[in-house]
Amino acid sequence: MGDIDPRTAQGGLHILIAGAGIGGLAAAIALRQQGHRVELFERSRFANEIGAAIHLTPNANSALLRLGIDGTKFGAVETEQLRMFTPSGEPLATIDNKAHAGKWRHKWTLVHRAHLHEALKVASQAPGPGIPAQLHTSSKIVDIDPKNATVTLENGGTFKGDVVIGADGVHSLARSKLPFAKDIKPFSSGKNAFRFLIKRQDALEDPETRSLAMVYSSVDMWDSDEKRVVIYPCANNELLNFVCIHPDTLSTINTSSDWNQEASKEALLEVFKEFNPQVLKMLAKADPYTLRVWPLLDMETLPTWVDDRLAIIGDAAHPFLPYRASGGAMAIEDSVSLAVMLSRDVTREEIPERLKLYEKARHNRASTVQQMTRDSSKPQSVETMEAMTDYIYGHDEFDYSTQLLRKHLWNKLPAKYWRQPIVFGPMPGPRQDWWGRNRVQKSLKSTFQTASIRFKTSRTLLQNLLPNERYSFTDPSTVAYASFSQTRLHGMDWLGGGGYRHLGLYIEGVQYKKTDGEVVKGLYLPILFESLTDPIVSGREELGMPKLYTAIEAHERSNSYHLTTSWEGAVWGHFHLEDLEDQDFSMNPPQNIGKGDLIYRYMPQVGRANKGQPEAEYPVLVPQEEEQKNIPSRITRLRTTKNARIEIDALSWEALPTLHHVISRLAEIPVDEIVSAKVVEGEGVADVSCARRIEFCVTYTVNHDYKYRLEYAYCCRRQYTASYV
C-alpha cells in the first residue's frame, strides 16, 4: 500500500510535470516506478548546469535511496563536523556529526547540484522499473487547466493528462492557478547570497589558506548578525562550495529573474571586507566567470497546494531560505509523498482526494521547516539547532505518507469489525481454574525455553505500528531496536501438563503518555502469535493481548536452533540461531528494558449496527518486576550467539487469507543489523496476572482519521517542542 514498486501496477495514470529541476525529476522517477506514464516540460535546454553544491540530509537520502539514487556513486561527501566562527575567526563551537551519525539510518551528505541533477535526469529516463519518463526541453508552459489536467506551451502545443504537477520553481505558473494563490508572490527576505565553487587544491597550495582547506568533510561557518559565509565540500572532497549571505542592499539583483545571476568579485570582497583575512583570501579565489548571486526569496504560506487535478511541489509550494539546508530535501520529500498517494492502483476519480491527502501529509511539515529556516537566519544556540535537526532529520516521508494513505483507505472501507473472540463467560485458563482459584503454585514448575533475536531497524517504520497518538518513541533517532522472541512452554497445569509456543515482536524504547503527563516506558508488543487456541482466547479476553494463531515448529541441534512459522501449510517465517555457545548465566542475567510490556486492548461491540464501535479500548501494562515476584523464574541454561537470521515472506491473501495484512507489515521491517541472539531455558512461568489498565478515562481515535501535528512552539528559551494531537 503506497509502495513505490511497479511490478504489480495495473494501467497507470498519464502525469504531466511542469519543470525538470530536482523536485520535478524526483517526482518523475517516483511516479514512473508506480507504473504511471510521465512527461516533463522544461523551459531551458539544460545547456548550463548550476555550479553549486547541495545538502542531502538524512531524511533526503532516505527518500532518494527509495528511488534508487545513491549520492555516494557521484561524489557525495559525508558531513563529519560543523565548525562555527565569529567574523573575525574566533571559534564558537564544533559539532562532531560523525560521532552522532549512528542516530540516523542514513548519512548527511554534500553533493554537487549538477551531479545530483544529472543522476536524477538519467534515472528518470533510463531503462528500469516502470515506463521511462519523456523529457521535453525548451518547452515553456504558458497555461495550465487544473480541471482538465491540460498544459499549453509557448509554441501553441497542448498536452492533456490525468494529473499536472507544478515543479516550476519559485516563480511558478502552476501556483497562480490555485485558489487564493494568484496574488501570493515571492518577495525578498532582505538577503542575497553569492555562490561559487573552487578547487580544494587551489586553497591547499596557498600557504595563507592551507589550514582551512586541510580539514576535510567539514561545514564551516563565519556568522554575524547580518552576514554569513559558509564553506563546505562536494565532489569527493575535491571542490569547495561557498555561500556568502548578506543584506540585499549590498548587491544588485533582479528578484523576478533567474536565481543564478552573475556577480563581480569586487562586490563580493567589498561586502565581506571586515571578515577574517584568511576568509577573504579564500573568497578572492572565486572565478569571476562562475561567481553568481542568488536572491533569497520568501513567500507567505499558501492556503492550499492542490486544486482538482493540479498539485505543486518544491519551491513552487514553499520556497526555502538556505539556513537549514532543506529546500532540496523538502522537494524530494514532496515527490516521494506524491508518488505514495498516487499509488499504482489509484483511479482517475480518486485523483483529487489523493492530491488532498498529499497536501495533508506535507503542508504542515514543510511549513514548520520553513519557519525554522527563517529563525535560523540569526545565530542559534547549539541546543536549539539540535532540536531543529531532530525534527528535520527524524522523519521518513515514505513511511509517514504510506501510513497516512493506509489510514485513508481504512476509513474508506464500509463499516468494519475489529474482532476478538466473543466472551463466553468465566473460563478456565492460566490465571484461574474453572472455579476461579489461581494456579500460581502449579505454575512454579512449568518450564520455558526462549529463543530470541535482537536487531537494529527503522524507528520511522516501527512507529507506524503504534496504535494511537499517546504512544511514541523515547528517542527521535530514526534507528530503533526490536526483537522476535519465541518461547516454548511445557508442563502447564491449565493445559493438562502440556504446552504450546508463542512468538512476538517486542519493540524497544516506547513510551505511553498519560493524560496527567506521566510517562510509562517499556517494550511495545504489537503482535503475539501462538500455536494453540486456548491461550489465544484467554490472552485476548483477559489481558487485551494482540494474539493470533500460527503454527510454530522448532528443531534444535547441539549448537543451533531453527524455527519455522506457518498457517495451514503456508510457511511465512524462518528464524535461525547458529553457533550457539553456553554462557555462565549467573554472570549474564537477562535484562528487561523499561517497566514492562505495553499492549493495547480493543474489544468490539456486538451487533451489526455497532460495527467499528469499541466495547473496550485502553492501554495495558504488564509490569515484569511484579510478575517475577508473583511467580519467580529460575534460569537453568543460557546460550548466546550473533550468528542469526530472520526471514519473513509476506506471501499473498490467497496463501494467508486471515494473516496477510499482518505478515506483510512484518516483512516490511528492515533488519539493519543483528545485535544479539540467545536461547534461555528455565522453570517458573509467569501467568501475567499483574497486567493492569494504565488509565481509565481516555478518549482515543484508533485506526481512524486522527492527525499528527508538530506544534512549532517558539518560546522565550527558543526551543521547539512536539505534541501529538
UniProtKB/TrEMBL annotation:
<dbReference type="InterPro" id="IPR010451">
    <property type="entry name" value="Acetoacetate_decarboxylase"/>
</dbReference>
<dbReference type="InterPro" id="IPR002938">
    <property type="entry name" value="FAD-bd"/>
</dbReference>
<comment type="similarity">
    <text>Belongs to the paxM FAD-dependent monooxygenase family.</text>
</comment>
<keyword id="KW-0274">FAD</keyword>
<dbReference type="InterPro" id="IPR036188">
    <property type="entry name" value="FAD/NAD-bd_sf"/>
</dbReference>
<dbReference type="Pfam" id="PF06314">
    <property type="entry name" value="ADC"/>
</dbReference>
<dbReference type="InterPro" id="IPR023375">
    <property type="entry name" value="ADC_dom_sf"/>
</dbReference>
<dbReference type="GO" id="GO:0071949">
    <property type="term" value="F:FAD binding"/>
</dbReference>
<dbReference type="GO" id="GO:0016829">
    <property type="term" value="F:lyase activity"/>
</dbReference>
<keyword id="KW-0285">Flavoprotein</keyword>
<keyword id="KW-0472">Membrane</keyword>
<protein>
    <submittedName>
        <fullName>FAD/NAD(P)-binding domain-containing protein</fullName>
    </submittedName>
</protein>
<dbReference type="Pfam" id="PF01494">
    <property type="entry name" value="FAD_binding_3"/>
</dbReference>
<dbReference type="GO" id="GO:0004497">
    <property type="term" value="F:monooxygenase activity"/>
</dbReference>
<dbReference type="InterPro" id="IPR050493">
    <property type="entry name" value="FAD-dep_Monooxygenase_BioMet"/>
</dbReference>
<keyword id="KW-0503">Monooxygenase</keyword>
<feature type="transmembrane region" description="Helical">
    <location>
        <begin position="12"/>
        <end position="31"/>
    </location>
</feature>
<keyword id="KW-1133">Transmembrane helix</keyword>
<feature type="domain" description="FAD-binding">
    <location>
        <begin position="15"/>
        <end position="371"/>
    </location>
</feature>
<keyword id="KW-0560">Oxidoreductase</keyword>
<keyword id="KW-0812">Transmembrane</keyword>
